[in-house]
């Protein structure tokens, strides 16, 4: 079906539908973000007041946040069923990274267009904080060596956690500025020694968006 490229609602909700109709393997959350970007450009060219434009942009960001939250919940439901598999950990991390990007995008758009949406930014910040914590979390998984079941711990290197640690601290500061009594969940921000279990050798590829990393393991 062709979409009227001058209709912001049709443009945006087409992307949202694509996200909602995708399965976990496809994980098309980015379709909602991409359509949001296009829809906001259309809104900026509309002959309406600044206030009306802001209302429509806030609607878009609220929906993107909602879709991302749903994706994050679905990702955890799947992981909780298959946590014993190491590949489930890496899949969860990649999906959480995508959710994190969506939350950060929404937060930044509010700043870019100077929207009066502090409450939404606080909500987004808490979602960003949560996803950062979960991305950096050390997770157990099981493996078999010569018929013996062993429990290993999957850990991102500090280098690969640092981006999310920085985002975490930035958003915690923002929330505390607006909610002084806020207590943030802790994040794994310490380095690890070579004897502390298994981890992916990301220095070779520098990213977690690569399936080859799933086979690059160092065992203690």
Describe this structure in words.
The chain starts with 7 loop residues before the first helix and ends with a strand. It has one domain. Helix 1 runs antiparallel to helix 2, helix 3 runs antiparallel to helix 4 and helix 4 packs antiparallel against helix 5. It has six helices and four strands; from the N terminus they run αααααββαββ. The C terminus is likely disordered. By secondary structure, it is mostly helical.
In short:
The protein is mainly alpha-helical. Helix content is 59%, strand content 8%.
Task: Describe the structure using short key phrases.
single chain, 220 residues, mainly alpha, two-stranded antiparallel sheet, 8% strand, disordered C terminus
Produce the secondary structure layout.
Blueprint lengths: L7 H14 L7 H16 L5 H32 L4 H27 L5 H19 L2 E7 L2 E7 L3 H21 L20 E2 L16 E2 L2
Antiparallel strand pairs: 1-2, 3-4
Helix pairs in contact: 1-2, 1-3, 2-3, 3-4, 3-5, 4-5, 5-6
The chain-level structural class is mainly alpha
Low-pLDDT runs of 5+ residues are 194-220
Order of helices and strands: HHHHHEEHEE
Tell me the count of domains. Answer: 1
Question: Level of helix content?
Answer: 55-70%
Oligomer: single chain
* Number of DSSP-assigned strands: 4
Compute the gyration radius: what is it?
20 Å
Q: End-to-end distance, in Å? A: 54 Å
